[in-house]
Write a structure and sequence with these properties.
Elements lengths: L42 E8 L5 E9 L31 E9 L1
Antiparallel strand pairs: 1-2, 2-3
Length: about 100
């Protein structure tokens, strides 16, 4: 098994060696130009607590990527990068949470 997202051997920069494949992408999947699937779900909770007629507290909790699915960046598309061509080398941020408390007076 390889670490490549797509087969880098289907590409060539030497058009003189294989002139028949110039401008074509042979034997590859239709969605080669697209990166891996992203599954991202965000969630927020809001609560307003009235203390008096003029004073209140707002609480907010936000969760980004709540199910913590790994989300990868697109594969390296620069053919001059050598062995990294076609590899996914980075992932996006994991689950993030933030909380806020606001006092109105």
């Amino acid at each position: 098994m390889t670490n490549q997202y797509f087969d880098p051997n289907i590409f060539t920069e030497d058009a003189t060696a294989y002139p028949q494949i110039l401008g074509t992408i042979p034997n590859t999947k239709r969605t080669l130009c697209c990166g891996p699937h992203i599954s991202n779900t965000d969630f927020a909770l809001l609560k307003t607590i009235n203390l008096t007629e003029t004073k209140r507290i707002d609480f907010r909790a936000e969760f980004f990527n709540i199910f913590n699915h790994t989300q990868f960046f697109n594969p390296d598309g620069n053919s001059s990068d050598g062995s990294q061509f076609g590899q996914i080398t980075e992932a996006k941020a994991p689950r993030l949470m933030q909380f806020a408390l606001k006092f109105f007076f």
